[in-house]
Design goal:
Radius of gyration: 29 Å
Low-confidence stretches: none
Oligomer: single chain
Distance between the termini: 23 Å
Number of strands: 30
Mean pLDDT: 94
Strand order of the largest sheet: 10-7-6-14-25
Structural class: alpha/beta
Strand content: 25-35%
Largest sheet: 5 strands, parallel
Helix content: 25-40%
Number of helices: 15
Length: about 575
């Protein structure tokens, strides 16, 4: 076998790597490594000049393998694969050595960090010697798209795709379209009518010739892969099968139940209500207590169920600005009332929202701060003869005083929570959930609408709480990705996938249930497990479990991994 000709490139990443790793010394020392033809350092390898440097060296030195020592492969592996392809080299003859996240960013000793960088690069050189060319695989694309969820995100995505003449199947769990926006009176920060915004969208979707709507429906099962999906949809008591090429998940969120927070007395004190209940009151045109009278003292409590380790750690993003909206609506409806905003931190971040905060503060609204984690306000029934129905006991953070606030009505700004069907949709679509049961994107910055399952996209608040403009922007981004795939007619599928060596398979079937992508099936005639390469994402769960070592992964074989470990543990 011909000896490999390897090129190594050590990236400075500005000061991100160079501050802690002596990149010039590393590149110089590596020149003595066997089979290494080129060893260079450069300030930004991912830049156009950095990539051109690699292309030039491949052509001039006939390099057949490349090691790039830089940041995480999640960021720029695809970039450098394209670089190799541009130079006429198979894109899978590349290995990334992560010397930023795995080294420079986690150490404070420059000498030790430089030593570690050399070791990581040596391991990558050893591994890349065993790389083999892999061929790109393409699949045909069914031009239809499945959209799960009929809120503003799902409808926006459906319209973007349908307006190009492509078929869309829209599945909505409830009996109406519009999602949570349909239950809102006015939209912050400019107090636009929600109905005037959502109803034209609903009408367009319901009357579109290329959108097929399924209400009171749920997706119970999805099989297949990008370009060739099939779903079983339950509509009332009936079932139907749909075929499509891409999936957009837009199931949204729901409001959190504040019952577990005993300090607030929700469910026992009649005029302690949630933001969703108050929204219905606003839509009815009356702000009244349970006894039919108008409240004189209204308190709005922020972060109910959010940013508290006992309930939910995350911020629900829209609550603060919605609370400011309520204060303005109450002031307009009940001009003589006393309004109290009880907050932990004011997070009014979207366009026009900081201005709304300023305007609200000038409308005789009292802002009082409390400790969200350790000292929640306590609501109790007022004594007979008091001026209000309830009293809120509060340790005010800024003044360091213990206050008693009168309240006839308390509005709880409840957290946004994942829906009940989230788990089943995630399982059916092959998408992972985070600890808060929000759908996980492929990359939070570089690929925020895609998922690790090719052809499946997530949009709107099911990915995490967000405002309407952000949800619509995500929907249109996902629609653009889908339309791009449809336009090409074909899509490339993951090449670094698992495969079964038939002679070693013992037919134990243990690999089948561990596959998170449902890519493994059992061939009864051949008496072996088989892997659908279009479904497999190369996660390696089956490889780790296979006792007879019948399963391996292209591009990350056991031989390659062992070579990498050999260089790390036995460097000499």
């Amino acid at each position: 076998m011909e000896k490999p000709k390897i090129g190594v490139y050590v990236c400075w990443c500005g000061n991100n790597i160079a501050k802690m790793v002596d990149v010039e010394a590393v590149a110089e020392e590596l020149k003595d490594v066997p089979n290494l033809v080129v060893s260079k350092d450069y300030k930004y390898m991912c830049s156009d000049p950095g990539q051109d440097l690699v292309v030039k060296d491949i052509k001039e030195n006939n390099l057949d393998r490349i090691v790039v020592s830089a940041c995480s492969p999640r960021l720029h592996e695809a970039t450098f694969r394209k670089t190799l392809k541009k130079a006429g080299l198979n894109p899978y003859m590349l290995q990334i050595a992560n010397i930023r996240e795995h080294d420079a960013w986690v150490h404070t000793d420059r000498e030790k960090a430089t030593f570690k960088a050399r070791e990581l690069i040596n391991a990558a050189i050893n591994r890349v010697s065993y790389h083999e060319p892999l061929a790109e695989r393409l699949v045909d694309i069914n031009p239809a798209t499945l959209v799960i969820g009929g809120g503003v995100s799902g409808m926006s995505a459906a319209l973007e795709i349908a307006d190009t003449g492509k078929q869309v199947f829209l599945v909505e769990k409830s009996d109406k379209l519009g999602g949570q926006l349909a239950d809102i009176d006015l939209i912050f920060p400019y107090f636009n009518s929600s109905r005037q915004k959502i109803q034209p969208l609903v009408n367009q979707v319901e009357n579109h010739e290329h959108i097929e709507i399924y209400k009171k429906a749920q997706v119970s099962e999805i099989s297949g892969y990008i370009g060739n999906f099939e779903a079983l949809v339950q509509v009332n008591s009936d079932e139907c099968t749909l075929e499509f090429g891409n999936i957009i998940v837009a199931v949204g969120l729901k409001t959190w139940d504040p019952g577990p927070i005993k300090e607030y007395g929700y469910g026992t004190l009649p005029d302690v209500i949630t933001s969703a209940e108050f929204e219905k009151m606003l839509k009815s045109g009356q702000i009244i207590k349970k006894d039919g009278k108008e409240p004189q003292h209204i308190a709005i409590i922020h972060c109910v169920g959010s940013r508290n380790s006992r309930y939910n750690n995350y911020c629900s993003r829209i609550c603060c600005t919605t609370a400011l909206k309520y204060a303005n609506q109450v002031r307009s409806a009940l001009p003589d009332s006393n309004i109290y905003e009880l907050y932990a931190d004011m997070r009014s971040m979207a366009k026009g929202c900081e201005e709304l905060y300023t305007i609200t503060s000038r409308k005789r609204v009292m802002f009082l701060m409390f400790d969200q984690e350790n000292d929640l306000p306590r609501i109790k029934k007022a004594d007979p003869g008091d001026t209000a129905d309830m009293v809120i006991e509060l340790n005010e953070v800024r003044t360091r005083k213990q206050l008693e606030i009168p309240a006839d009505m308390v509005i709880l700004m409840t957290a946004m929570d994942s829906r009940e069907e989230t788990q089943s949709v995630a399982h059916a679509a092959g998408v992972s959930l985070c600890g808060n049961k929000f759908f996980i994107e492929k990359h939070p910055k570089l690929d925020p609408v895609a998922t690790t399952t090719s052809g499946v996209y997530i949009v709107g608040s099911c990915q995490g709480p967000k405002e309407i403009p952000d949800s619509i922007a995500q929907s249109r981004a996902a629609a653009a990705r889908v339309l791009g795939t449809i336009h090409k007619g074909k899509a490339s599928v993951e090449v670094t996938t698992a495969f079964v060596e038939a002679s070693r398979c013992c037919a134990c079937k243990m690999c089948i249930p561990v596959c998170p992508y449902v890519a493994i099936s059992f061939n009864e005639k051949r008496n072996i497990s088989e892997i659908n390469g279009a479904l497999c994402q190369g996660c390696g769960a089956c490889v780790a479990l296979c006792r007879p070592k019948a399963i391996d992964i292209k591009g990350s074989s056991q031989m390659q991994v062992i070579a990498e470990l050999d260089a790390l543990f036995f460097p000499n």
